[in-house]
Amino acid sequence: MPESHLLLTTAQTRIPAALERFLVAQNPAAERLSAAMRYAVMNGGKRVRPALVYGTALALGATLEQADPAACAVELIHCYSLVHDDLPCMDDDDLRRGQPTCHKAFDEATALLAGDTLQTLAFLALSQGPLTPAQVTAQMRILSTASVDMAVGQALDIEAEGKRLDLPALERVHRNKTGALIRASVQMGAIAAGAEPGALAALDIYADRLGLAFQVHDDVLDVIGDPRKIGKRAGADIAREKSTYPALLGLPAAQALAIRLHDEAVAALAPLGAAAAPLQALADFLVARDH
């Protein structure tokens, strides 16, 4: 099995079970809200961000158990962001991962509250684990900063609709909207392992380039992807007049940019040696995926 798939399989196996246990333990008084949160978290997904947490932690000598709280927390933030992103006031999407979006399966108010609660629970999840108070505090700082940056990126993305951004402005949107949480995933995995500053610096370059490559490839898939595989409408970015890499650069140049960013991400892993092979393989997968 490819090493990228090992990380993804680990995340896809551990995260749903861990989050199910975690969500069941929370306040059950509002049954519809609880059901909406489980729906948002359990309806599939590649679990890329938890895989990055696990891959980084393992590469630096930590255990899966040490990485579990951060992996759960970052996925809760990601799921909350998707619920809110799909709302009529945002991207107004009907499908997510091939299933009705949360506000379609429930209702808009319940979906809004589900996202709010998932965001808050992410920080509770971080506090429940085997790490030292200093490590937990560092992870909370990283995740809260990334959550703010993600919202900033979403705001910039909305402001840019109907406008033609240049490449630096487009990268600024996506370093925040998509890249911030990917960087946080890698940083929190490194914190779980007690990483040295040199390893943190190399991994941050990896995560920064990978975050951009991931978004460029997403934009490419919005143009050429099969809706049955990507689990949502193709061409949605064009319909909303969003600035995208294919629209700005042309499709071939956007595909070439994704490859260049991937290569820069992989090169940054060199100081970590063979232990970083699964992270390299995951980067390979993310820029070659069809969904």
Q: How does this model look, in words?
A:
It is a single chain. This protein has 291 residues and is mainly alpha-helical. The chain has a single domain, classed as Farnesyl Diphosphate Synthase (Orthogonal Bundle). The protein has 15 helices and two strands. A two-stranded antiparallel sheet has the order 1-2. A hairpin with a 2-residue loop joins strand 1 (95-96) and strand 2. Helix 2 (31-42) crosses helix 6. It is globular, with a radius of gyration of 18 Å. It starts with a helix and ends in a 5-residue tail after the last helix. The model has no long low-confidence stretch (mean pLDDT 92).
Q: Quick summary of this structure?
A:
It contains 15 helices and two strands.
The first-to-last residue Cα distance is: 19 Å
Helices and strands, in N-to-C order? Answer: HHHHEEHHHHHHHHHHH
CATH superfamily descriptor:
Farnesyl Diphosphate Synthase
Beta strands, count: 2
According to CATH, the fold-level topology is Farnesyl Diphosphate Synthase
The biggest beta sheet, please?
A: 2 strands, antiparallel
Mean pLDDT: 92
How many whole angstroms does the radius of gyration measure?
A: 18 Å
Number of helices: 15
Shape: globular
Named CATH architecture: Orthogonal Bundle
Helical proportion, percent range: over 70%
* Assembly state: single chain
User: What's the CATH C level?
Assistant: Mainly Alpha
Order of strands, main sheet, comes to 1-2
Q: How big a fraction of the residues is strand?
A: under 5%
When the domains are counted, the total is: 1
The helix-and-strand class reads mainly alpha
Uncertain segments of ≥5 residues (pLDDT<50)?
none
